[in-house]
Amino acid sequence: MEKRRQSLQAEVAQFISELQYNSLPGEIIEDAKYRLLDWLGGALVGARYTPSVIVTEMVKSNGGIAQATVLKGGLKVPLSQAVLVNGIIGHVAEVDDGHRLAIAHPGAVTIPTALAIAETYNKTGKELLTGIIAGYEVLIRLGTAVNPSHYHMWHTTGTCGTFAAAAAAASVLKLDRDRILMSLGIAGTMASGSRETFGTHAKALNVGHACQSGIQSALLAMKGFTGPEDILGGKKGFIKATSSNDNSKILKQINDSSFLSRTAYFKVYASCGHTNSPLDLIFMILQEHDLLPQSIRQVQIKTYLTAVELTGQFKNSNEEEAKFSLPYCIAVALLYKRVTLEEFSFDKLNDPLVAKIAAKIKITEDPEATRNFPRERRASIQIEMDNNLIIAKETISSKDAPDYSALEEKFRSLASTCLERQRVETVKEMILGIDKLDDLNMLMKHLM
């Protein structure tokens, strides 16, 4: 079939409409299963967070037809309500995957959207995986096209994530090319998400709203609702309105290039991704030196400006703020030798020793690191001890993804906070064999 090339948006719609499970590379399918597993672990533990509890109570009081499962909410609610909740709970713990060039969290918007649509419309595991892969490709490519300038003001996961959610939903629903085109056009006028929300509950709301808007876009298009045919690349479109740099070539190549979903990284630490490079350095140093944190005179960290602006101050008034505080994260890494969800507990947040160590940490900009962001995530660290010993290290990027066996352990650790051991293993095996599952209700009943 000859591919239509009327607009940038049409290129993306063509890709989604032609994406078929049987033509997907095996390694991309396998990776998508682990993306789903990784997201689900974060969502299960995220369900107990305050923002998740609030929004779950809200949708419960709203009532409505039982269509899709609220994870660990013990209920089914209308599709658009369920995906709002699941989008929030999958992101709030800050353990979901990310993409360096796109500066976004592809799984956070793609997976809850595809899962809710697939459950509601009785789709198979193969159709679910295909939708997930479609969403990843759209978010990674669009995020890369508009960044780094887009991220100066906008929360990419919310903005570009709306297009990705629409792509995932349209793929699972098997909409034709023209209706997918409309779905993307509608999504473009619903896309939103300000970086001013960071450190508050509303950051996760950006994600839930993107999921909800993406689903609504696809469902409206399915019914014949219309939208602009090139809100992506038009003269008054999304890219021109929200970015001063146009790298849309990577989006134009969506029908010609290899899949990019495997270039997304998995989270190693339970904190903002911009803390990762300095944390990697700290743990390298801790492996090489038996440091006594109380004997540290000062710690100097240099990194790119976005990381300095977002995470450079010590904040410990709540978990959301602390996860975006590099001094806090470095302090708990030095004291407790890890940065897991436990390091953001009430007791740790209020530990005076954490505050004392954090006061010795200074974060400043490295202009070269800023110039190379987001292609690189450079950081350097210098620790000066009371005995005048100086330890220094630097890196050009944070760690790549852990191997899949490490992800299975991560899932067990997170999921076991709310599921009994046998159910954790059952869910894990169902996810890793989801391509053989024709009825997703078999999975969802374990997650209510």
How would the global form be characterised?
Answer: globular
How many domains in all?
2
Helical residue percent band: 40-55%
| Widest β-sheet, arrangement of strands | 4-3-5-6
Q: What's the rounded overall pLDDT mean? A: 95
| H/E element order | HHHEEHHHHHHHHHEHHHHHEHEEHHH
Q: Sheet bearing the most strands, described?
A: 4 strands, mixed
CATH class of the largest domain: Mainly Alpha
Low-confidence stretches: none
Task: Predict the CATH topology of the largest domain.
Answer: 2-methylcitrate dehydratase PrpD
Overview of the structural elements:
The structure is a single chain. Helix content is 52%, strand content 7%. The protein has helices at 8-18, 26-46, 50-62, 79-89, 106-120, 125-146, 156-173, 177-190, 202-222, 238-242, 249-252, 276-288, 305-311, 319-322, 326-336, 346-349, 352-358, 367-372, 404-415, 421-432, 441-444; strands spanning 68-70, 75-77, 296-303, 361-365, 379-385, 390-395. The chain has a 4-stranded mixed beta sheet. It has a two-stranded antiparallel ribbon with strand order 1-2. It is globular and about 70 Å long. Pfam families: MmgE_PrpD_C (PF19305), MmgE_PrpD_N (PF03972). Residues 269-431 form the MmgE/PrpD C-terminal domain. This is 2-methylcitrate dehydratase PrpD.
